[in-house]
Amino acid sequence: MTDRLNLLTDIEGVSVGHATDLALGSGVTVVVFDEPAIASGSVLGGAPGGRDTALLDPAMTVDKVDALVLSGGSAFGLDAAGGVQAGLRAIGRGLQVGSTRVPIVPQAILMDLLNGGNKDWGLHSPYREMGYEAFKAAAKGKFALGTVGAGTGATTATVKGGLGSASAVSSRGNRIAALVAVNALGSPTVGDGPHFWAAPFEEEGEFGGLGLPDKFTAGDTSLRLKGVNLKATTIGLVVTDAILTKAQAHRLSIMAQDGLARAVLPAHLPADGDTVFAAATGKIALDDPMDFMELCHLATLTFARAAARGVYEATTLPVADAQASWRDRHG
Description:
- With about 325 residues, this protein is of the alpha+beta class.
- It contains 5 helices and 11 strands; from the N terminus they run ββββαβββαβββαβαα.
- It has helices spanning about 80-90, 125-135, 245-265, 290-315, 325-330; strands spanning about 15-20, 25-45, 50, 65-70, 95, 100, 105-110, 165-170, 175-180, 235-240, 275-285.
């Protein structure tokens, strides 16, 4: 994978765009597919928020999507998909329904309303326009990580959350990549120290290269939450260039959820809304059942790496009493 950027855009035919408002303390990230992609998803958190997520069930009729949206704003953020739909419709994208087209744009949101940003936006939330802005900004190649897009207002139990990405290539040459906005009720780091729970899966020092502590204490594995009554949610997706069925994409999303459980302790709590999408662009066939098994394994690893990388790349929001970033706290 000599041209690897270690980003979601390592998958051919995938573009990523952000809209970021640091004063608001929130943002939107959009993933646009050049051609409709087979997609599914899974929800393992107890307090999810999403749009058109039901159609991703393998039993449902529609099997392809034009784009996927990750957004802050809690339920208000669900407006963002409308802005993305508008952009896609303007360029002739979408499912043909009679004489019109309906872009298929599932979305997941995270709760960032209590991070200190100015949420006094008036009658209408800004998320529809932010969704359109992120769509217009979508491009291939390198894109920003950390306190940007859907990761702008993200927080965790210990340090500022953020948007991360990572990629891998299978032994047969299939590519797979993850994009994660880490806004967890739990902690991505071990105890009060700088070490990431995802350390065993790190590649080339992508989130500091610190490894794990020499030993663990009871305090390291004790329950750490950013609040009892706060809602959280880590949202993200994995994309591969393999040819998959919708049922296989669903399984891939579950395997990516395993990656979340290896990057955040604890994950999937009653007040988390952990939602993960999975999509396949259908460029390279899988020749053997083991090929898909390997993609499942890589989905777990890349999602864990992307989560840690999002926290590592985050910067502290420029608002009063903002949660300190990993870099501000640990150098």
